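Illustration 12: TetR/AcrR family transcriptional regulator.
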Amino acid sequence: MVRECGEPGTVRPGGRTARVRAAVLEAAGDALAEQGFDRLDLADIARRAEVGKTTVYRRWGTVAGLVADLLGDMAEQSLPRTDTGSLAGDLKANAELVRRTLADPRQGALFKAVIAAATTDGRTAEALRRFYETRVAEWAPCVTLAAERGEVPPGTDAAEVIRAVSAPLYYRLLTTGTPPDEAAAERAAEAAVTAARAGCFAAPGGDAATGPGPTT
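Figure caption equivalent — predicted structure in token form:
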């Protein structure tokens, strides 16, 4: 379906336009990781991407519009969920993916900058919410399948289980400045599995939906 009045940067073009978009998003990610959100400048990003300033201003309009497109692209390009056949294996794979992302010098710095910006910029906050909504939806089926196998109670909130895996890893990065290590990722996955099996994420009576649900 073609969106008629999409926001800047939401159209998915092909050919040369796609190459320009890829170059600009790459440059924006580099600049964001190096300088933070407050120092982003569309002219500087155009220079880094080796494209005309008018192209960047016409297509994205604002820094917030460009960051929103960057996050959307990152969500689409992220690795698909792993299916190991067990909830413990799936959540460990999820935790390890999050850990590797946050431990990466560029990606870790980029997420810290975007999270900081989201506290004061509404459009960035909405883009970040959509990013995590996409990623939670990608991984939520592993909990739904676990419920079908009888590993967790019926009605287990799949989205909350996935959030419970990544939350302590982000908390560690943001409160200590230190990326989570493999042991932290394993603990996060094991804690989420234990809580899910104990029914901590199940609604009374097992009537809650097991899909991704809201991401508030």
